Amino acid sequence: MKAPRSKHAVVGKCTAAGFAALAAADGGGLGALASDCAAVGVTSDSVSAYATCLARGAICGAADAVAIAAPHRAATFALGEISSGLGFCGVP
Questions:
Q1: 3-state helix, strand, coil in the chain (%, to 5)
Q2: Rg (the chain; Cα; Å)
């Protein structure tokens, strides 16, 4: 799976700031996102991991919206033997 543009943008803009600034409470506050990052399978220990966490969070948010709008999509996809889930989101 190709990395989303948002990840490249975060890495490009945040690498110069450095991971320590992102992790600081008065910086990016990365520590506050630790449980959110863990929920999408990311250990937030680098700028790249931080970017992955943000990208996956956005993707999972969109998947949640689809699950609400089309609650029977998984059953419909299963009829065609198509997986509708993402490995890192809690959405089936």
A1: 60, 0, 40
A2: 16
Phi-psi region of 74 (alpha: psi -120 to 50; beta: other; left: phi over 0): alpha
Copy the structure tokens of residue 11: 């890495």
> Using CA atoms, how far apart are residues 41 and 39, in angstroms rounded to an integer?
6
pLDDT tens for the 92 residues of the chain, in order: 555 676 777 777 777 777 888 788 787 777 778 888 888 888 878 888 888 888 888 888 888 888 888 888 777 777 777 666 667 886 44
For 35, the enclosing helix (H) or strand (E) is: helix 34-39
How far apart CA 47 and CA 49 sit, in angstroms, is: 5
Determine the residue type at 39.
A
- C-alpha 28/C-alpha 18 separation (Å) is 10
